[in-house]
Amino acid sequence: MRAPYLTPEGCEGSITSHHPEGMMTRPSIPRRVLFALPAAALGDPAEATPTLDRTAQIIVGAAPGGGTDTVARLLAEPLSGRYAPQVIVENRPGASSRLGAEALKVAAADGTAILICPMPVLALCPHVLPRTTRYHPVTDFTAAATVGELAYGLIVRRDHPATDLSSFIDWARAKGDVTFAPPVAGAPQHMLGLALMREAGLNVTVVTYRASTLALPDLIAGRLDCYMSHMAELAPQVRGGQARLLAVSSEARLPGFSDTATFAQQGFPGITASEAFAVMLPASTPPNIAAALNAAIAEAVAEPAMRERLAQLQMTPLVLSPAETAARLAREFTAWGPAVRASGFTPEE
């Protein structure tokens, strides 16, 4: 099945070229934590009493139709009646999804304002866009849950001479320089791609695009050597025969792409990462509200229909507790600082 396209919603910036001068520190990613539901959580939502007595809104820092918007709308329906009488989605696109986070920061801490976003919007943007990011990911928000996570992948054109990561590195060394593009400059894929090139000892020229829809045609036509993005974007290209997948960033091979080894299996354990979708509340939100939202999300994600829809988005269901979500966010925020400095990335703001 063709997976809906998730728009890259990382951080903006610009960079032209990099050379192998050191190695980026890998952001610390915790092992997957499976969620468990109390027996009482499995009842009919129509019989449940919502935690809130007012409408709640899920803020999305991207335009309608993108990946985060899709996940938010998938959640809004089951949360209606479980968490609040009605849950609606409000799009606040702009500033690489940071406008949504800024809106949550100043919202009332009563549980009616919820943010869903890729965790790098919170953990990475303050490092790559320090002058224009107007929030602190740890102190300005209350963590509620995660919904799922995405792996990243590296692709080349379908008729590229390389058939795996090792043969691509050999090809690139013989060529002398490799052109590489992430979906958005400063995104996690950008940092991980640079780390891979440095570890492999390759000279790389980073080509930046205003949108991934411009990068993919160049890759397919052979004007770009390789491209790294999350699997929601890459899966249709690979399954459609337009691109070849060389490696994935997950800890284990991905269902549906079992013939493609991970970066770790091909000698690059440092390129192991995933992009979690975080659900956040304003700072000072009472813990019982965060716990109630977490329980409602866990119940929703446990439903087979929801898990199937997430799978179509190439997302692995993952519901962390509020404490686990906060801990993962803090670890990623701490790790991305030295990683960005090691990369040599210089944002244009």
TrEMBL record:
<feature type="region of interest" description="Disordered">
    <location>
        <begin position="1"/>
        <end position="23"/>
    </location>
</feature>
<dbReference type="Pfam" id="PF03401">
    <property type="entry name" value="TctC"/>
</dbReference>
<dbReference type="InterPro" id="IPR042100">
    <property type="entry name" value="Bug_dom1"/>
</dbReference>
<dbReference type="InterPro" id="IPR005064">
    <property type="entry name" value="BUG"/>
</dbReference>
<comment type="similarity">
    <text>Belongs to the UPF0065 (bug) family.</text>
</comment>
<protein>
    <submittedName>
        <fullName>Tripartite tricarboxylate transporter substrate binding protein</fullName>
    </submittedName>
</protein>
